[in-house]
Design a protein that fits this description.
Blueprint: E1 3-21, E2 27-47, E3 52-56, H1 68-79, E4 85-91, H2 102-117, H3 124-131, H4 138-143, E5 146-150, E6 155-158, E7 167-171, H5 179-184, H6 197-205, H7 209-215, E8 217-218, H8 221-227, H9 229-240, E9 245-248, E10 255-259, H10 262-276, E11 281-285, H11 289-299
Parallel strand pairs: 1-8, 3-4
Antiparallel strand pairs: 1-2, 2-4, 2-5, 5-6, 7-10, 7-11, 9-10
Helix pairs in contact: 1-2, 2-3, 6-7, 8-9
Amino acid sequence: MQEITLKARAKINLTLDVTGKQPNGYHTVCMIMQNLSLCDTIYIKRIDKPVIRVKSNLEWLPTDERNLAYRGAELLKNTFPIKEGVFIYLDKKIPVAAGLAGGSANCAAVLVGMNKLFHLGLSKRSLMKLGLQLGADIPYCILQGTALAEGIGEKLTPITSGCPFCYVLLAKPNISISTASVYQNLCLDKIKKHPDTKQMLLQMQQKNIDEMGKLLCNVLETVTISKYHEIALLKQKMLSFGAKGTLMSGSGSTVFGLFTEKQKAIEAERSIKKEFGLRDVFVTEIWNKKQQKKERVRNG
């Protein structure tokens, strides 16, 4: 095998709770993570020259050590006796720096792809352990599907019942939010509402999207909504078009809404694009376990 093409899927957080802070400054979390159909396409090819070359359809995107896909390839080349090089092409569809784990998903795809291309024989667990060196979301992006994440995000428990199918509207405001800044400004003792993660898992198992919508909760919104009112406005707009619930994903700035009717999601997409003047607004879907199994069969 000389080349491989993989999908790197966006993720959302159905719940996100911050449970404490470690001495090293890292925050501990408890959150439910879920993949979406929205994805980047990652093409990886073996090349004779022992270098890493990364290109993207986004001309402004860094393609050197600042890019997680590059760093993933570099990590494998430095860890294992890989004498050849790789050419990586990132066809980006996931908005960048949006709380959707696009960069982490790209890195995960590179780790998985190079493991196959160079016959490294690494298990998924081993790849997840390696990926953690580069980012807390990368192990989940290797695991994929529906999962409960704890610790700093690296302790993952797959949710076998998965998440019920529904349509997901994504809208990324024209603002830039620093993840580090959000966590630095989070006051744990002032958080009044925490996610009911156990109840969310129960409603997911019962495929009750109406109740799931009511249970969506992200404690990081206590920081972002006070500074960026547009996040609250986007949530209200989605609800007015029939979203069962809305939430900011991760540390932001993307807002998502869960819809059971595709047409309502499309109508909300059109209205938000027009009213807010946003480019990154998409209707996508929950990517469930059945779809994951079908892709595994196709990819061998």
